[in-house]
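[Automated response] Your request has been received and processed.

Submitted sequence:
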Amino acid sequence: MIQATNNAIRRRIEREKGDAVLMANRAGIVPDAWQSDLLQSDAKQMILLCSRQSGKSTVSSILALHQAIYTANSLILLLSPSLRQSQELFRKLQDFYNALESDSLPQAVEESALRMELSNGSRIIALPGKEATIRGFSGVSLLIIDEASRVEDALYQSVRPMLAVSGGRIILLSTPFGKRGFFHSEWTDGEDWRRVKITADLCPRIDKEWLERERQMIGDWWYLQEYFCEFVETNDQVFSYDDIQAALDSEIKPLFERRN
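Generated structure:
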């Protein structure tokens, strides 16, 4: 009887190792179709342009937890503009971990409100969006940047080298915040990204009547960004993004050329 139980656990572990959807189901999550697709993807770079409350944090947390459990010695960093936001993403991950049956999991040997270390050597760490606090990390297996449109460009450029040697994955998730910054740039012009756009009307958990009332409450500028994922011009912008792009000409030589 015990042997049969152990064999069943081993078979389940092997199935879940190759399919994060199965682990999500065991944690009580029934993913939407787009979430299941991402959970089964092996893309190195993902950018999730998704409405508020669409489930982007949920799918990112499941991906991070699956990485930690099934790939030993993984280093996973959760980064956002503030420590509170990173901590919220980490708390969601903890809840999913606690919802799984503990007999088949690497045990948490160290755990706090900001980090978890598992018995298989994997670490999950929540960090604020401050360059001084994160520069010491290297060999990152998975880097998740939440509310990426609000993260400073300089910080983004300083964390990307953490993936250089490890060949780790990166996930950017956010709603838009104007036509500016690295999030907008990577979405429009970045190379080798798997792009996913989920607007509020595609999420079965968001009531359509509530959405219409919300539009009347907050106005089009916020509504189109927060719920329909449109990169809207900033309020203080003198020239539109499209006008600026149209004015550029790659054939015109600069007045001054940089010298080494």
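Summary generated for your ticket: The longest helix spans residues 208-226. The radius of gyration is 21 Å.
If you did not submit this request, please reply to this message.
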